[in-house]
Amino acid sequence: MDGSLVQPAEAAFWTRAQTHMLRFGGDFVPFVPVRAEGAFVYDAGGRRVLDFTSGQMSAILGHCHPEIVATVRDQVGRLDHLFSSMLSPPVVDLATALAAQMPDLPKVMLLSTGGEANEAAIKIAKLVTGGWEVVGFAQSWHGMTGGAAAATYKAGRRGYGPAAAGSFAIPAPNAFRPRFPGVTWQQELDDAFALLDRQSTGNLAAFIAEPILSSGGILELPEGYLNALQAKCRERGMKLIIDEAQTGIGRTGLMFACQRDGVVPDLLVLSKTLGAGLPLSAVMTSEAISDACDARDFLFYTTHVNDPLPAAVGLKVLEIVERDGLAARAASVGDRLKAGLRGLQAEFPWIGDVRGRGLLLGVEFVDEDGGQRRSAAALSDAVTDRALELGLSANIVRAGASGGVMRIAPPLTVTEAEIDLGLDLLWQALKAVA
Ligand SMILES: Cc1ncc(COP(=O)(O)O)c(C=O)c1O
To answer: In 3D, which of 241, 242, 262, 259 has the Cα closest to residue 250?
Structure first.
C-alpha cells in the first residue's frame, strides 16, 4: 500500500470530523476503518492495515472473533443490562473462572474500564488501611478518572489543579537508560522508599504498579522487583495493587504477568484484554480484604457494575485463551517477533533497544549519530508514519529520557505469517526513512 491513506471520497468525513470531534490526546490517525477482521482493519476502499496494537492494546483475540460475535449476539438478545444489585449467571461464572486463575483472590467485582477498576482498587486500599497516600511509578499510566489519574505520572498532570492529596511517585527501573549507572535496582528501590518515608505523613494506603510499564515505554520490572516491592508494602501496611490492563490474560506468556515472580497482590486489576476489546474490567481481591470492605461499608455502586453482557464476553475470552493455549502461543510467537526485531536492530543503528515479554514488545529509537543528525523522536515518528502508509499500525510512546519507543502488541491469535509480514513492513519503513 502506497501514498496517503486519506481517500478523496473521505474528504467530507474529515471535514465533519474536524468540525465535530473533540480532540482528547493528539491527532487522529489518517485512516478510516470501516471493518476489521483478525489482525487487520480495512477502509472503505478495501485497503488493509495490520493492527500491531490490538486496537487500544486490547483486542487479544483479533478483531471480530467469530465466537465473540456469536456471544454478543446471543447475550444481548437474552439478558443485556440489569439493576446493579442483581446478579446473573454470566457474572458469577466469570468471577468463578477468574478466581480459578488466582485462587488467593477469590472476590471479584466487574466494571467497564481500566481507570474505573483502578479507581475502585485504590478506594478499597484506602478504606481498608484507613490511609490515603498512594504511590505509583513516575512513568505510570492507570487511567483518566480522579484517583487513577492522580496515580498516573506519564502524562496529563498539568492544567487540572491539584491531584489527590498524598500522591507520590518513585522512578521505575530502566535497564536501558539507568538513572544512576552502576546502581542496582535494589539500591534504587531502597533509596526511593527511604525518600518516600521522609515525605509520608504515616498514611500510606497503596502502591499501584504495572508489571511492564506500557505507556511508560515498555519498561519491564526485573525479575524479583515485584517481590521486593511487595515486601516494602508489607513493612508499611500498604496494599499492593497490580494493574494488568495490558499484561493480563496471556499476553506476556502467562495468564498474569505477576505470576512470573510468584507474586499475589492484594488487589489485581484487569481491563483492556479481559474484554478483548469490549469494555470490561475486574478487581480481584482476597477474602480478608473483602471482609474488611464489608465491615466498613465499601461503596462503589455504578450503572454497569456486574452487567451480564460484557461478563459473557469475558467468560468466552477466558475460555478461548485457555482452550487454544494462547498464553503459550504469545510466548512462542513473541519470541519469533522479538528475534525479528533484534535482526532489525542489528541493521539499523538508531534502534537502541528491543525489549518486553511475549506479545508486548518495545523498540526504542535513539538519536542518529549521537544527535548529530536526526533525533530519536523524529526518526520514530517518520518510521511510524511510513509504516502506516505501507499498511502496518504500531504506536510511539515517549516517556522520560526516551525520544520514542514503538509499542508492538499484536493479538495473541496473530499467525506466524502475519508476524513475518509485520516485520517486513517495518523493515520497509525503516529502509525508507534511512
Ligand atoms: C496499565 C493501564 N492501566 C489502566 C489504563 C486505563 O484504562 P482505560 O483507558 O480503560 O480507563 C490503561 C490505559 O491505557 C493502562 O495502560
So the answer is: 259
